[in-house]
Amino acid sequence: MVNEEILQFLRELRRNNERAWFLANKTRYDRLRGAFIEEVQQLIEHIAQFEPTLIGLEAKDCLYRIYRDLRWSSDRTPYKTHFAAYMAPGGRPSEYGGYYIHLEPDNCMLAGGVWCPPIPILKQIRKDIAVNGEELNEIMDSKPFQATFGTFYGEKLKRLPAGFASDSPYAEWLKYKDYSVLSRKEESFFTSPDWMQKTLADFRLLLPLNRFFNASVDEYYGK
């Protein structure tokens, strides 16, 4: 299984996170990255069957680089120890809600929603929650969604943002700084033969949430 090989490579990289080791294993890395690109492309094509905004999206535009940006970091290790991709309209840098896959030894996950939106988009999302929060409640309270993703995991403000009624029934939703959810997985989830089918089942649960937030992003951009 390719994902087993990927996780093993990343485990070794974690122990040998230095340029000399990586260069000695560059051919291996290139092969595994190519295999991961193929997996992500398959995921995109399957997701596009229920999320048409991903039609035509290329996997290479969704992958994160393995090279760490060391300019402002006290951690001088040169390489990330995960393979990851964010599948959303426009690919990796998208401001839209999408579908995230993350392979890392002892830290595998699937995620979605809107992570760290720019302030103007965050304000638009909050405005829409204040008006349409009942729809968000229904999405978040769904038993399958709760069992898989729970609630938003990001930071929250201690107080309600300015401009919103203190008695809003959606006050707790309005305090979040971003609106992303995640589902942590055992490595065995991604090394099982049916991992892609299970991943797609989880991603289908994210569809209503992503559409809720993406309507806000569209509204901000006047679409």
What does the model show?
With about 220 residues, the protein is an alpha+beta fold. The chain has a single domain (about 1-220), classed as 2-Layer Sandwich (BirA Bifunctional Protein, domain 2), CATH 3.30.930. Helices cover about 50% and strands about 10% of the residues. A 4-stranded antiparallel sheet has the order 1-2-3-4. A hairpin with a 4-residue loop joins strand 2 and strand 3.
Features:
four-stranded antiparallel beta sheet; alpha+beta; BirA Bifunctional Protein, domain 2; 223 residues; single chain
Give the number of DSSP strands.
Answer: 4
Radius of gyration: 19 Å
Portion of residues within helices:
40-55%
- Most strands sheet: 4 strands, antiparallel
* Beta-strand proportion: 5-15%
Give the spatial strand order of the biggest sheet.
1-2-3-4
